[in-house]
Amino acid sequence: MGELRRIQFKKKGDFELWQNYIQTNDEAHCSDLGAWRLLYQELYGIDDYSYVYLQDDKILGVVSLYHIKSKLMGNMLVSCPYFGYGGLYADNQQIKSILLNHVSELAKSLGVDYIEFRLNHALNTPYQVNSGFMEYDLFTNKSSDQIWKESLSSNVRQNIRKSEKAGLNFKITTEIDGIYDLLSKTIRAHGTPFHSKKYF
């Protein structure tokens, strides 16, 4: 019989246990790394509820949710507040059911309005699918020539060529102020709140 255990990311052993699982799971995303939980706690005071399901000292599944109280969005548990996907992985359906049942009990005890899993696959009933969000992944394990030819549409390639002809160039910098100002203006123009400069 297995054991469900809450992870405390400030404890080195727990942090490493979580990291090892996430880094060796082919389906996991960078948003699942333990450092994000520590960062969100430090910057925004957001509590995480992260659990591992262990059997014979081996992790068979994990779930991680953030408890967010917002005047706009309500009182919620969400798997990835600032990313596209992540937060729930299990070796089989039985383990996934154990994790989801625990999340349901946790939600009741916290009195949340709803749970939002941001996953790239649907969950079974009673979870509903909201397909109004999309994310585009560009995998960079190919050469730049392959990405150019195979992953970018002709319209995108044409826009890049036009930008280059107009004199657009880029440089790598460690100066945050200019980049932060540009990003914050752009993201706010789309109606989205932006992170504190400490985030960078």
Order of helices and strands: EHHEEEEHEHHH
Compute the CA-based radius of gyration: 20 Å
Mean pLDDT: 85
> What does the main sheet amount to?
6 strands, mixed
- DSSP helix fraction: 25-40%
Number of helices: 6
Low-confidence region ranges: none
CATH topology of the largest domain: Aminopeptidase
CATH architecture of the largest domain: 3-Layer(aba) Sandwich
- CATH superfamily assignment of the largest domain? Gcn5-related N-acetyltransferase (GNAT)
Computed structural class: alpha+beta
Strands, count = 6
Number of domains: 2
Distance between the termini: 43 Å
CATH class of the largest domain: Alpha Beta
Q: What portion of the residues fall into strands of 2 or more residues?
A: 15-25%
Shape verdict: globular
Give a nutshell description of this structure.
With 200 residues, the chain is α+β, with helices and mostly antiparallel strands.
Molecular structure report:
The protein is of the alpha+beta class. The protein has 2 domains: 3-116, Aminopeptidase; 144-199, no CATH class. It has helices at residues 12-24, 34-44, 93-110, 144-151, 154-165, 176-189; strands spanning 3-6, 47-55, 58-70, 74-78, 88-90, 114-116. Strands 1, 2, 3, 4, 5 and 6 form a 6-stranded mixed β-sheet that branches.
